[in-house]
Amino acid sequence: xxxxxxxxGGENPGPERPTLKTIAFMTGLGxxxxxxxxxxxxxxxxxxxxxVRMVARQLGYQPNRAGVRLRTGKTNVIALVxxxxxxxxxFTSQMVxxxxxxxxxxxxxxxxxxHSHNRDPMVPVRYILDTGSADGVIxxxxxxxxxxxxxxxxxxxxxxxxxxxxxxxxxxxxxxxxEAFAYQAVRHLVERxxxxxxLLQPPSRLSFYTHTRIGFQTGLHDFxxxxxxxxxxxxxxxxxxxxxxxxxxxxPNPPDGIVxxxxxxxxxxxxxxxxxxxxxxxxxxxxxxxSSAILNWIRPEIITIDEDVRLAGKELAKAVIARIExxxxxxxxxxxxxxxPQS
Length: 343
Description:
Elements: H1 3-6, H2 20-27, H3 31-38, H4 46-59, H5 65-72, E1 77-83, H6 91-103, E2 109-115, H7 122-131, E3 136-139, H8 147-154, E4 159-162, E5 173-176, H9 178-191, E6 196-200, H10 207-223, E7 226-227, H11 238-249, E8 257-260, H12 263-275, E9 285-290, H13 294-298, E10 303-306, H14 309-324, E11 333-336
Parallel strand pairs: 1-2, 1-3, 3-4, 4-5, 5-11, 6-7, 6-8, 8-9, 9-10
């Protein structure tokens, strides 16, 4: 019989994962000293801490999460439950970048739990709560009466939301001012002589639908324009948005302006305009939100309004960490405005 098999190993298991003992051996320090240095203990000198950290970085040392959890009851994990449907325009990646910037240098690690908006949004949140797999949670696509918010509040899970709820529960959030976006979008279109304006809006179940509609309707009233109904939303399949816009543009009284609440939807809108034989910037103008500069590359004629999703990620990460540390939720709420192009 092969001697390797007699010893119980048929394959090379590869290098062992570095441990506190590995760092102790490399630095000539005790395991306890190494552990305390990595925890930034006040009784360990700055020079010793830097030497331990340098060796830990060189070795690629990572704390054993199971051991950390046994000792402290914490996972050092922040869970981001995020819809993957908008990744075509970089929404997801920008959110992750922003959160990661804040978590860098903290004990916390980011675990992304992707889901589709047409699935039950409670499933990933229940899993995190039932398994205790995170110390804090960030969620998006908030509803006015959001069951996820209620459940995490009841279970005392620190969390922050990308969007506001309206259910009498005070909780941390960061939100984009969609009311201001829609209002100013109408103003920009009217300034270009447009009076018949359509809106590609969020689905009615989401909180930012209400904010968007208020801003849009107030803008129509204040600037003397009228709405041309568009019977699709930003959650509608892109090919269906394109077809709906083409039909609308071929109708006897088509819109001469359109507002898009999502960058991906703007791509489909542009395709529908072209399919109807119309020209963007000539027959119709469009204002759209975007989380990256892709629209400007595709169609410079689109008036683009930046939603800083990276900033949102930073604010949400700060809020959930502060909530873990016990800060009151009413101090952890923020709102960012639309960034309009320089004239």
